[in-house]
Structures are given as structure tokens and as C-alpha cells.
Amino acid sequence: MSDNLVKKLTEYKDLSDAELKEIIETDLYDAELEEAADKVRRENYGDEVYIRGLIEFTNYCKNDCYYCGIRRSNRNSDRYRLSKEDILSCCENGYSLGYRTFVLQGGEDNYYTDDIICDIVSEIHSKYPDCAITLSIGEKSYESYKRYFEAGAMRYLLRHETADDEHYAKLHPEEMSIENRKRCLFDLKKIGYQVGAGMMIGSPYQTTENLISDLRFLQKLEPDMIGMGPYIIHKDTPFAEYKDGSLELSLRLLAIVRLMFPYALIPATTALGTISPNGRELGLKHGANVVMPNLSPVGTRKKYDLYDNKICTGEEAAECRGCLERRVTFTGYNIVTDIGNVRKYNNA
Ligand code: SAH
């Protein structure tokens, strides 16, 4: 019986809602899911793990998401912005360490106008034409996204967070809407970006039905990247009293997503490494094929505190590349210096 459900998911890349509910709500299938997900990731990507250098360039944010440590209402947040020169020196350091993707992530900070973003992107693009530039700077207009794309950004990460509008409304203030977030994702796709969506696992009020809606939404969007990590509390948010998402459920969803989207680029996230010392290694074993070491200046890393106890923020973590490489190799995979594009069309 249990054998059949995982086999069915592997073969059809889909299950009915009732079957998904069954597989999500029990640990009975976990061992088979892990094995099947690893097999599918190896069929599509071998043992390769792609590295993305994450540059957290601002923690100012105009939004007020209830779960996030850099929300505008958090008066305890020590705010910072990196200059263009700071960002370029992160890229220079990253390039010499073998990174061929730079991810510029930040709060929604209007200080960085479209002109400023385009200037930064085009300078990185002209200095490092063999690298991919990924932006993760939130919800913008079609025109803004188009300008960044024309300046040289080719990927965009924008987690949908939760696809269900009632659940979305419990996690965000009224001025934010899932409609706009989805609009952004489809706009990004239309413009030609490689697009990343995804959800937090175990966020407050989340139900199994919400997770199934997330999977159904991902099936509609067909994103190139799917970023998922456990929700983790931040003490200075309205959700400080809720509990963290679990490692088990996060790994289960990773494996399910790998089986539903064999082609996808799926990170073993920092959040996963935060809730468990070997969380990222376990993520890799459950189908993840991307890691995103921190390239931000060591002095600012602690300040980009989306959630409590985030790893890789201390002095000792100045060079995440070597540490992660050892972890990945030890787990049986292989970090590659490669732009690491999606293999969607080979395997469709
Ligand atoms: N402003 C950008 C980047 C947001 S931070 C944007 O809107 O896309 C990147 C991701 O961190 C978010 O998409 C969210 O899924 C995750 N995140 C934020 N707070 C978190 C928390 N408390 N626990 C776990 N993940 C969190």
C-alpha cells in the first residue's frame, strides 16, 4: 500500500488531494520518499549541487509581514544598506571562490530605485558576463521587472509564501495580497526570467490543505526554482509565541516536491540548517540540489535576521564556501562551479 503511493507519485508526478493529504500527514512513507526523491534528483542532476552566493544587501523593508524579523514595525532591527561598491566587492570575492550566480536579496527598500537596481545589475553583468544575476527584492510592477531583466538579471526569487488567500491574510497585513504576489510571479515568467516560488513549512495557522494548495499553485506556475524552508520564530514579531516548523515535515515536503517537479532547482535552505545542525545535509538527501552560502559582509550578516538563531552569521562563518563544500561532499554530493541553469526542457 505505502509502496504504491510513493511509486504513483514518482510515476505520475502527481497524486489526488486525498492521497497528498495521506502522504503529508504521516511519517509512514518518509523512508520511501527519501529514497525515491534522491533517485529522481540523481536521474536529472546526478550528484551535482549548485552554489549561489547570497548577498543580503538591505534589511530595510516597507512591508510588515507578521513572521519576518526585518518587518518595518520591528524597532529593534539594526538597519543597514550596502552600497554598490560593497555589493561589487562581495561579487569579486564570490567570483574568486567559484560562484557563478549572485543572488541579491533584500527587504522591499525604496531607497534602491529602479535606476539604482539597474545600475548595480548592469555593472555586475558587464564585469561577470559568465555569471547569473538573481534578484529577490519583492513585489514590483511589470515595467520594473522588465527593466531589471534588460539590465541583465535573469532569475528572480519570490516565494509565494502560501497560495491560500485566507491563510495569506493571516500572515500578512491587509495591504498585501496573494493576488498581487501571484501576478508578480506570472509577470516574471512572461518577461523570461527563471522564476523561483515556494512556501514556508509550518507557518502559523498552516493546514495540510494549505500545503496542498501550495503544490497545486506550483503545478500551475511551473517555476524553475522552488524554495521551501521551515518557518522559524523571530522574537520581535507578532508570531513570537508560535512554534517553529518541523524538520520532518520540511524534509517530507522537499521529497514530495522533488518527485512532482523532477527538473526543479531546489535549495537546501539556511532555515533548514538553523532548525537542525545537519538540516541542509538532510535536505540534499531529500531531493535538494542547490545551496546558497552567504556572501554578505560578515559585519552585516547578523542584522539580516529574518528569524532567530540564523546560522552562518558569526565571524567564524566568514567563508561559508569551504564549510558547505565539506558538508556536501561528506553527504555524497558534489559542489560544482557552474552557472547551474534549470534542466526543465531536457526532461519535460
Ligand atoms: N523581500 C523579499 C525577500 C524576503 S526574505 C521578498 O519579499 O521576496 C526571503 C524569505 O525568507 C521570504 O520569502 C520568507 O519565505 C523567508 N522568511 C521570512 N521570515 C521567515 C521566518 N520567520 N522563518 C522562516 N522563513 C522566513
* Number of helices, counting only DSSP H or I runs of 4 residues or more: 15
As for the number of domains, it is: 1
Q: Which class in CATH terms?
A: Alpha Beta
- At the fourth CATH level, what is the homologous superfamily? Aldolase class I
Mean pLDDT: 96
Largest beta sheet: strand ordering: 2-3-4-5-6-8
Total E-strand runs = 11
Q: If you compute it from the alpha carbons, what radius of gyration comes out, rounded to the nearest whole angstrom?
A: 19 Å
Question: Explain this structure to me?
Answer:
The protein has 348 residues and is α/β, with parallel strands linked by helices. It has one domain: TIM Barrel, CATH 3.20.20. It is built from 15 helices and 11 strands. Helix 1 (2-12) packs parallel to helix 3 (30-45) and helix 6 runs parallel beside helix 8. The model has no long low-confidence stretch (mean pLDDT 96). S-adenosyl-L-homocysteine (SAH) binds at residues 67-68, 105, 107-108, 136-138, 158-159, 161, 200, 229, 231-232, 234, 271, 306-307.
Q: Could you write a compact summary of the structure shown?
A:
The chain has 348 residues and is α/β, with parallel strands linked by helices. 44% of the residues lie in helices and 11% in strands.
Which descriptors apply to this entry?
single chain, globular, binds S-adenosyl-L-homocysteine, 348 residues, 11 strands, TIM Barrel, alpha/beta, 6-stranded parallel sheet, 3-stranded parallel sheet
Write the layout of secondary structure elements.
Elements (H helix, E strand, L loop, with lengths): L1 H11 L4 H8 L5 H16 L2 E4 L1 E6 L25 H13 L4 E6 L7 H14 L4 E5 L5 H10 L3 E3 L7 H7 L6 H14 L2 E4 L2 E2 L6 H14 L3 E2 L2 E2 L16 H14 L9 H6 L3 H7 L4 E2 L6 H4 L18 H12 L2 E3 L7 H4 L1
Parallel strand pairs: 1-10, 1-11, 2-3, 3-4, 4-5, 5-6, 6-8, 7-9
Helix pairs in contact: 1-3, 3-10, 5-6, 6-8
S-adenosyl-L-homocysteine binds next to loops.
